Recover the amino acids of this structure.
């Protein structure tokens, strides 16, 4: 498990930390303080928050105080934040629907900061493939090394599965089935849920988020994009019942425009592999199956990934493997034989792994590994356009753009009632 | 479980048995002697074989002798067989590819037999929807009550699931996933397998047979046809390796033209329910899942059907149910309360049920129930065109024709690369 081994980043002595300018970090609520912040805190020799942007300066100052960010300056102006030379990496973690309007001017203003090297944006990057492409191009022209939070690629389960597949432990893949259940697009809406996650076009929905993350992981594990896809998208629950914090119905009903079910089927480019996929909202009553199941069948074995929640990128998973040993290893006790072809089985589960934090933490770790060249990879480029299906590195805005094109085709296939050829979406713009 | 209760047909006294003229019964090999024959033997007061058609008269006489069919006459001529007034029901159990050429003249000749009332044909009836329609019309014009061997509709598991669904035990269905694995379309071909089952157009293939039976059962259980469908059909194994009776490779390779994988997704007319379906050949290495899994999710509960083989109509299954009690039943011990809404769970499995025989046996039983009106259904019609989604009765050539139209659209969707509207295929010709 070479690719799963602990990063050696903490052993780099006396290196200057990467200075982080953060947009969207609040000590009071939200994703960033739960995930990015603990990752940065744990990697304090490698990352240091030096700037916070918030039009509400009081809020930024409060966050600095509460989180004891002694090296951070609060900026109420995007221009001054983006121009500050004390920032090596900008992290953007706000509502997806606002990304475009922040990023385009940000990238322009940032030309005044000669030290800026990294731009880290949350998936889904933008609300449409057109916006995503414009952002991608602006960041490329600005010469930044980009990072997208398709953090499931750093999940130990996904990497272990990818390793087993790439080393031939299940032979040739011949069939894949995925079923996911994300309860939050269902019959009931918790009172405290923000309404934008139920409005189509806000960049957060079953197709873009739940399916997007998961299908990215499938492509990453198998090392293949799709050649043909078909989809059917449903909004069978156009009205949700509001429930209070105790799960009791309030009697209030609210409209929902995002889909609650996606049927997707397609063919992987590599090996013409059939992939069947059903993603649903609704009530996860599922008593006889987990909320996330990914079955990958091969000519020599099977892989199964299971999770309690339908979101592969933030769930702690269990990986089951059954098949034959692909490589020759010397057998123990001085025997001369080798055990290639032997039937083996493996259950891989880290009982206390917090996937919500853990995958983001490992993404930060891989940024540090890249920055300090900790793994001493020969001929490491100073920049790379996309991670693609490499074990090392991290997903970039190009990876995000390719995924956006797939999501766009999923929506188009449903509208057109056609099976679409998507062979070309993995090419550069 | 009203619909699952034992037929009371054996209590009918002194009724004349239905006289059966059989095409395709051989004492030496084949499906008929393993399934139809024991059913008729067990129901000997209701059915009696009186005629066998076989152009090879010696073979027919041998079968009569070996099976001790003391009332049967051997006919080497189709015309004399079809004209014989000693036959009330003709059963056709031969290779599907030969059905059309036998049935069309048979139905014409049979006009000389005033007693003929029933025609029982094996699924898939014919090799194409056009042939199926011609046969359907000829049988309808001849005025026969037809039966098709979609015998899974008589499976106790399917009927129990249908009952639970129709009585509201899982609420409204909101999602269905099906995965089936039929090993025989895979990498290896047993030496003794007839080659016609690997040739496209012979009426026996993954789509027509494995998927056809299973999707018929899904429609039957849910009480709904499809409105939209999409499919992708694969022949990823165009060449098979021949294995001998010990499973050892002979080194011989043979071409295969039938598909080895079907991706199917669609929407049920009733409730706009998304259905995801993956049917595969290949090696059933599947360690972490059964070869047949049907998951039916509802707003109030879940049903799961599992089988060891990917063929729902001939597999002994296990039915899992979890949900809430739909109806009010008086609670035991004289309590005044009722227990509607109570959470319940059920595992339904008949350990010694032989599904290969059993479902065919129950199909014969239902023919007898109809013929003798054993269940004393008021206003029983003397004939019916189709079973549709009724519990009672049995599937007919009209049910078969509708299923053929679906299979035809599955093949067309793949060729056209389109999602197809199939709302109208359940209508009469």
């Amino acid at each position: 498990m070479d690719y799963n081994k602990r990063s050696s980043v903490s052993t780099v002595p006396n290196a200057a930390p990467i200075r982080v300018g953060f947009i969207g970090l609040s000590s009071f609520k939200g994703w960033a303080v739960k995930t990015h912040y603990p990752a940065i805190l744990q990697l304090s020799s490698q990352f240091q928050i030096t700037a916070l942007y918030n039009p509400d300066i009081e809020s930024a100052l409060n966050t600095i105080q509460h989180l004891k960010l002694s090296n951070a300056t609060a900026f109420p102006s995007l221009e001054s934040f983006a121009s500050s030379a004390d920032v090596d990496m900008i992290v953007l973690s706000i509502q997806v629907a606002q990304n475009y309007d922040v990023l385009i001017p940000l990238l322009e203003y940032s030309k005044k900061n000669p030290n800026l090297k990294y731009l880290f944006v949350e998936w889904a990057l933008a609300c449409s493939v057109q916006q995503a492409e414009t952002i991608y191009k602006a960041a490329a022209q600005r010469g930044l090394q980009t990072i997208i939070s398709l953090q499931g690629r750093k999940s130990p389960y996904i990497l272990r599965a990818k390793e087993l597949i790439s080393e031939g432990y299940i032979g040739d893949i011949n069939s894949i089935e995925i079923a996911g259940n994300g309860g939050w697009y269902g019959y009931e809406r918790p009172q405290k849920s923000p309404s934008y996650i139920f409005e189509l076009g806000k960049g957060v929905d079953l197709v873009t988020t739940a399916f997007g993350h998961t299908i990215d992981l499938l492509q990453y594990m198998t090392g293949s994009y799709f050649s043909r896809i078909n989809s059917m998208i449903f909004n069978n629950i156009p009205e949700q019942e509001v429930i209070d914090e105790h799960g009791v119905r309030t009697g209030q009903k609210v409209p929902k425009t995002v889909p609650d079910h996606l049927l997707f089927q397609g063919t992987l480019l590599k090996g013409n592999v059939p992939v069947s996929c059903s993603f649903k909202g609704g009530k996860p009553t599922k008593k006889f199956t987990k909320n996330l199941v990914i079955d990958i069948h091969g000519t020599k074995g099977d892989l199964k990934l299971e999770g309690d929640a339908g979101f592969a990128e933030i769930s702690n998973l269990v990986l089951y493997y059954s098949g034959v040993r692909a490589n020759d290893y010397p057998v123990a006790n001085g025997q001369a034989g080798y055990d290639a072809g032997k039937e083996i089985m493996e259950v891989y589960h880290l009982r206390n792994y917090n996937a919500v934090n853990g995958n983001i933490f490992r993404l930060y770790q891989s940024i540090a590994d890249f920055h300090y060249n900790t793994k001493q990879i020969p001929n490491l480029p100073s920049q790379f356009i996309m991670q693609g299906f490499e074990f090392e590195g991290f997903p970039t805005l190009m990876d995000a753009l390719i995924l956006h094109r797939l999501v766009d085709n999923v929506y188009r296939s449903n509208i057109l009632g056609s099976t679409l050829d998507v062979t070309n979406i993995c090419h550069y713009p």
